Amino acid sequence: MVSSQLIDTPEVYLSIKIYISKINIREQDQVWYFAVESGELIGREFGESVVLFHDALARKLGMTAAEWKCLDLLNRQGPLTAKRVADRTGLTTGAITGIVDRLEKSGYVRRGDNPGDRRSVIIIPTTRPDLTERVAAIYQSLGRAMTELFRSYDEKESSAIRDFLTKSALIMRDQTAKLLPQASRPNLSPETNALPRE
Fold it and tell me: Which residues span the domain enclosing 8?
């Protein structure tokens, strides 16, 4: 059975067991159904915790979650076109324009010529030591906590966890794309530093 702080709470455990008892399945299949149901709850809890963390981080930095999402992408991937940022974040190019305007006004990014297409510009993250230090402090705290957690698993378990998380990210990208209309589906494939034509 799945063991976690979330699932080990009597209320959650009981609600899953009651649900299972009401559906017509063989007794030997109930353990599998419990694992599926509890796994879904754990996944939702994890997803919510990640969203809340990044929202709190953005507020700590004095920006919106969408602004931080775009700035973090640019800091990790380097200069990108507005269309590429829109593709990666799922936001419209119009929304990206407003976000870039605010980030540029605050000195976090600047616009530059796109060497691959004169009709468009690229968004370039600027070096802001104050921001770097503040973000680093937050991520160092998270990193220490996650490292301590990872050390509680052996090499085989750690490998399985990495594999699961990597494949889960790919599944989430695919499922996210399916939720959007065909015409506005973002390119959610792993990023490259290439600057595609607009």
Answer: 1-60
pLDDT tens digits, one per residue of 111-161: 998 888 888 889 999 988 888 888 888 889 899 998 999 899 999 998 998
- Which residue(s) pair with 112 in the sheet? 122
189 vs 81, more confident = 81
CA angle centred on 30, ends 27 and 33, rounded to 5°: 155
User: How far is residue 134's CA from residue 39's CA, in Å, rounded to a whole number?
Assistant: 34
Cβ atoms of 114 and 195 within 8 Å: the answer is yes
CA 1 to chain centre: 28
Nearest to 71 by CA among 159, 140, 131: 131
CA–CA distance, 46 with 137 (Å, rounded to integer): 22
Amino acid code (one letter) for 134: R
pTM summary value: 0.62
Does a structural domain hold residue 53?
yes
29 inside domain: yes
Residue 126 lies in a domain: no
Q: Is residue 3 part of a domain?
A: yes
- 121 φ, ψ to 5°? -120, 165
Q: How many domains does the chain have?
A: 1
